[in-house]
Request: fold
Amino acid sequence: MPYDRVFVPEAKRFETRFYGRVPADEIVQNYMEMIQSDDWSPDVVRLITVERGADLSDLTYEVFENRFIKLLEDTADIAGPPNKNAWVIESEVTMPIVQTWELMPAAQELDVFGVFATRDEALDWLHT
Reply:
């Protein structure tokens, strides 16, 4: 499992850290575990960090378009209205892969999504 996750109750925030090779299946698994958790509610936000050196090569435009958008559509009744999730990308090499999702109009309709270089930037955005 290439991720660790904690829930920060006082901030109503899930924090996930991905490392190593990160297949799309693991991103889906993490998302499903969060929205099915007893800690989940529509006002929970998500802070996802992709460590420097993580391999996101499994993520392509087709995966975003065909798998992740369908996932959000299929789970909307469980997840509730779109909530904020911020991705902190520790490597400039990996940043464009995740920014592809941020730029997709269909994704932004289903999920309030931001990509950031630092944790502080991401937290500021999540809590404004």
